[in-house]
Design a protein that fits this description.
47% of the residues lie in helices and 14% in strands. It is built from 14 helices and seven strands.
Length: 338
């Protein structure tokens, strides 16, 4: 019996492991937190492993795992607050030179590293589809939906389940699922800003833009930084609830509030939410520390305009625990890291 159980467990791990990334992406969309999503994926696999001998194969293994994950997320959301971005809490600030008020008690939306959620297949269409479904604006808009509507929309519009399959999972009727989907789509249209499609990373204009962004931040050239932005650019930075719109506001913010001096920053590229991103490190401020050491400061998630020549949104996340989640180094040394 022990041998049979061991064989079943090994069989489960071999067959289920290819779905781990898409399950993490699904839980992330539901919860808005990569840390919470990782916990729920672990719980999903534990529940599935314990029940695998009773899996009858009436649905695919993929569908069965997503069913367990969705139910686990819905249970978790019963005792969790929604995760907003600052833009979801109120209007823009009017004084970027004023006092910023940190709000660490708010469960802010977190970015997710592409390496954790992108599919392994080489099909470019699958990669682009995966990126679209975890874009920061989309996941932020999902947080405005009640949990069950959120689940219905993701199962129908992202995972492409049939209404009858969703109804069985949710323990309701097909008519109720269709009604919930209609309401969720309407609410999403109100909550989500107009969002461009993912720009191909090989685009030359975008590559030049991102190179200029790195150079401008390393030099702390505020004039060059704001020249890279659209006229209606938005800058937001959890855990601070204040957010700002327009190049002039962002220029004042960078001049007054940014603590490092020219030459005291390094940026590493990192894919976040299917969008261009950078890990910003700043020189260690400790007088006794190694002055060639650069420590994690913030993660930048960029939204690039369709022409690839301007940036329309920057999500600046100061939760440095996300550096380890993204597989980024805890310290940079020397001059060659950009």
């Amino acid at each position: 019996m022990a041998t049979a159980n061991t064989a079943a467990g090994e069989d489960f791990l071999r067959l289920s492991d290819p779905y781990r990334r898409e399950l993490l992406a699904h839980c992330y969309r539901m919860l808005g937190s990569v840390h919470d999503a990782e916990d729920l994926v672990q719980e999903t696999y534990l529940r599935a492993w314990r029940s695998y001998e009773n899996f009858e194969g009436r649905s695919s293994l993929r569908t069965w795992l997503h069913t367990i994950a969705t139910r686990a997320c819905l249970t978790a959301l019963e005792r969790r607050q929604r995760r907003p971005l600052p833009t979801g809490l109120g209007g823009p600030g009017d004084d970027p030179a004023g006092q910023l008020t940190e709000r660490p008690e708010v469960p802010w939306l977190e970015p997710v590293p592409d390496a954790l959620v992108e599919p392994g297949e080489a099909d470019p269409a699958a990669v682009v589809g995966s990126r679209e479904s975890v874009r920061l604006a989309f996941v932020a808009a999902l947080q405005h939906l009640p949990p069950r509507q959120r689940a219905v929309l993701l199962l129908r519009d992202v995972l492409r389940w049939k209404a009858a399959e969703v109804a069985e999972l949710m323990g309701t009727s097909t008519a109720s699922v269709n009604s919930a989907l209609q309401r969720a789509r309407a609410q999403l249209d109100k909550a989500a800003p107009s969002e461009e499609s993912v720009t191909e990373p090989a685009d030359a204009a975008q590559r030049e833009l991102l190179d200029r962004y790195v150079e401008a931040f390393v030099a702390k050239d505020v004039g060059e930084i704001v020249r890279l932005f659209t006229e209606d650019v938005v800058w937001e930075m959890p855990p601070f609830p204040e957010w700002f719109r327009g190049p002039e506001q962002v220029a004042t913010l960078a001049t007054v509030q940014c603590p490092y001096a020219p030459g005291e920053a390094r940026l590493l590229p990192v894919g976040l939410n299917g969008q261009p991103g950078f890990a910003l490190y700043t020189r260690d401020a400790d007088a006794d520390a190694d002055r060639d050491a650069y420590r994690p400061f913030a993660l930048h998630v960029l939204t690039v305009a369709p022409d690839g020549r301007r940036i329309s949104h920057v999500g600046c996340f100061f939760d440095t625990s996300l550096f380890a989640t993204a597989g980024l180094p805890a310290v940079l040394t020397g001059e060659g890291h950009r």
